[in-house]
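Exercise 7. Given the components listed, write out the predicted structure of the assembled complex. Treat all entries as one system.
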Amino acid sequence: MEKAIIAKNVTKKYKLYKNTKERLLDLITPKSYGEDFYALADVNFEAEKGDIIGFIGINGSGKSTLSNIIAGIVPETAGTVKVNGQASLIAVSSGLKGDLSGRDNIELKCLMLGFSRDEIKELEPKIIEFAELERFIDQPVKSYSSGMKSRLGFAISVTVDPDILIIDEALSVGDKAFAEKSLNKMKEFKEKGKTMIFVSHSLGQMKEFCEKILWLEYGMVKDFGSVDQVLPKYEEYLREQKKLSKKERDEYREAILKKQLQLVQGIN
Amino acid sequence: MKSALTVLKEQINHFYLIRRLSVYELISKNKSNYLGMAWEVINPAIQILIYWFVFGNIRENSAVEVSKEMEPVPFITWLVAGFVLWIFFYQSTIQGSKSIYSRLRMLSKMNFPMSIIPNYVIFSQLYIHFFLLFFIIIIFHFSGFYINIYYLQLIYFLFATLCLVFAISLITSTLSTIIRDIHMFLNSTLRMLLYLSPILWQIESIVDNPFIDKLLMLNPLYYLIEGYRSALYGIDWYFIVHWEYTLYFWALVVVLFLFGAALHVKFRRHFIDYL
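Answer.
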């Protein structure tokens, strides 16, 4: 099988500064200031073409960072990501221009994705139809509700037909009818053999839709495997975490962070 | 050197995109005003009126001598000829400087050649410049300065301005994405530059010191503005007559561009980390 995504030793380091002075000193002097924070530490995974992978993990585990790196938006600090084909990310804040109307935004976005004028003319009615914006399509986007915005963003992204689709919690704002429609569209993609990545907290949707699950914990891969293998473990983990007292939870976190540090030092 | 070629290639390959995006840029900027695009003309017109009133009165509305062979020209024509170029330079440099960090959030969601961002912002100002220039040519006609062969050098000086602004914007857009203060610094520097360029007052007429005069000529705007005036008044082929100055100008542009391109290419992958 052909690989769609190969991520090797992907690490993403952010710097936490206490104040702007530290930030400036770090920028202009060779010495390092500020505290290191690893959003991702030594993440390895591979996706075959046609895989549908769900990213799960508690808040701050690095799901969004990883999907941003795969989409090519955020650069990785170390390691390599190889993506075969065009990746397209759909997020709730999907970069629309507030002053322009929905129609102008469609044209603008398609233009930036490299479509010609004729292709855009062809795509435009399809996008408008899918987004179900009706009278609002000629209104400025800033007057849209968040559901409408994400519908428009989603409609653009799926209609331009990318090779790899990354969906970052984008379906959680739409209403049920639209979520269903989107899921149907994604099933269509699934039949076409496209690779998809799905970031969500809704385990129900994951179960229904994904084939594989990548479980992230504090920026590290905790588990990677089929849905039936990983999801029960994750549910068990969530239940156990809930039972722990605050102190126990802190201890657990300490231990994990220590492990993370070792991992990072290992590859450096 | 290599990064300069990369940047140049991106400009040429995506020229269609630059043109289209610059139109959207202009539309989205003026969409929320009732007068819309008209503000792009009203704004400089108001500025010109106040400068005409103040600086015209200071010099008691006397005429300006632009060339030894010519009769002195009315101050208002002299002012608008310089000001039309200044407002283009000022607006596009300011917009160019903040072009990347203000659009990054939207643009980074797709694989998009970053180096065309400052360029399409500059281009959107160019339409306004054409419009204003057209007005000014009409003013010149009514003042008795007709279209002449020297108008051809307007094309050359406009191109030179574009090159200069793009080179500067490559540097400032990168730096101000990393350190936002650079944009503030640029803002105040430009305000100063208005008074250090021959736009509102004739430098030779007030400062009677050849050394300071030469020093002020280091400002590349001096070259461009004098070139514009040469064309509009039909004095001479400015860039040939002052060929040493032409050499200096282009050397400066090339150095700025090489530096800007190197800086831009080095940092562009990491722009998003600085937001």
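Discussion: Residues 75-107 of chain B form the longest helix (33 residues). The interface with chain A takes residues 17, 20-21, 24, 27-29, 31-32, 105-112, 178-179, 269-270, 272-273 of chain B (CB under 8 Å).
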